[in-house]
Write a structure and sequence with these properties.
Length: 328
């Protein structure tokens, strides 16, 4: 029985530490097996309970973060308690003689995990002293990595909303932004904007890969939703790329870079988090730009070009719907 408990306790402890390091330090690994399942179960339960009400969607991200941290704490505590329970004499009382009860093992394990130990109990000399030292080391590792992970996630959430604000701050839809950017000759006023937003989207993509928990942080306001903002931006780029006849009025390298950044973002999101929509969202039109002296292609030509990127637009709509918002 002792050997079984020793193996079981060691397995739970090692598995938890692996998940902790996997989730917090492995940039390309995403979430560990424990963290990933906690996120999915919490998301599914919240979605079932909320019935698409936006209020509960706003707290699902913090809930998953709290549940993930608690799971690491409880599993480490459980694994180490089982490990010490494999030997009835692993812990002794320093104040008086007598057998150590199961709850005292829980107490000793938890206290040495989160503090530097106590004087009422002590491990038996030899192996159990070493395990107690490792126990304290894992407690420090848990607190350090847990705190840094929380700070990194919150910082990434703020940047995620900043991306949306950068885009929606120029207008609520692509046509509005184009009307503001057209100076009668070209669209070069958008150069600095496209340069900055491309960099922000690339960084956002990398953060989603490093911290999958980001996907579960939703904003109730559409103008703070990165999915909505990127949908507006992609419509803007679509009009500039396919709808403007005179390409000299647009900085094409910056335009191509921005479209590429969005493409990478969509590949990351659809491969791990979202499903593309079954229908294509409403296409942007050129009719509102006819009186702005913008050199445009014909509506038929533009419509054919839009049809060629239908899958990309379905991915965009899927991202917007997953964020519980309407197409902008």
């Amino acid at each position: 029985m002792g050997i079984v408990l020793f193996i079981l306790g060691t397995s739970v402890t090692v598995f938890t530490v692996v998940d902790l390091i996997w989730t917090t330090l492995w940039i390309d690994g995403g979430a560990g097996p424990i963290s990933k399942r906690i996120a999915r179960v919490t998301w599914m339960m919240t979605k079932k309970i909320s019935k698409n009400r936006k209020g509960l969607f706003n707290i699902v991200g913090p809930l998953i973060l709290v549940f993930t941290l608690l799971s690491w704490v409880l599993l480490l505590w459980l694994g180490l308690t089982v490990l010490f329970s494999s030997d009835p004499n692993s812990i002794v009382k320093t104040t008086f003689d007598g057998p150590v009860m199961w709850y005292e093992r829980v107490y000793f394990t938890g206290f040495s995990l989160f503090t530097l130990g106590i004087g009422d109990y002590s491990p038996q000399p030899g192996l159990w002293q070493i395990i107690t030292a490792i126990n304290s080391g894992m407690g420090i590792l848990l607190l350090t990595l847990g705190a840094s992970y929380t700070i990194s996630v919150i910082s990434a959430v703020v940047k995620k909303r900043a991306v949306a604000r950068t885009i929606t701050g120029l207008g609520e839809n692509s046509t509005e932004i184009i009307q503001k950017a057209w100076n009668g000759e070209d669209f070069y006023q958008l150069d600095l904007f496209l340069m900055n937003v491309s960099s922000q989207i690339t960084e956002l993509t990398q953060q989603h890969q490093a911290y999958p928990l980001l996907h579960y942080y939703h904003s109730q306001k559409p103008d703070e939703s990165s999915a909505v903002g990127i949908a507006i931006l992609d419509d803007l780029l679509t009009i500039l790329y396919y709808g403007v006849d005179d390409k000299s009025t647009v900085n094409m390298p910056l335009l191509i870079e921005a479209r590429s950044s969005i493409g990478t973002y969509l590949e990351t999101m659809t491969s791990a988090f979202i499903k593309q929509a079954e229908t294509v969202p409403p296409a942007p039109t050129l009719s509102n730009l006819k009186g702005e002296s913008v050199p445009l292609v014909s509506e038929d030509t533009f419509s054919k070009q839009i049809d060629s990127i239908s899958q990309r637009r379905k991915q965009l709509l899927g991202a917007v719907q997953a964020d519980n918002h309407e197409w902008p």
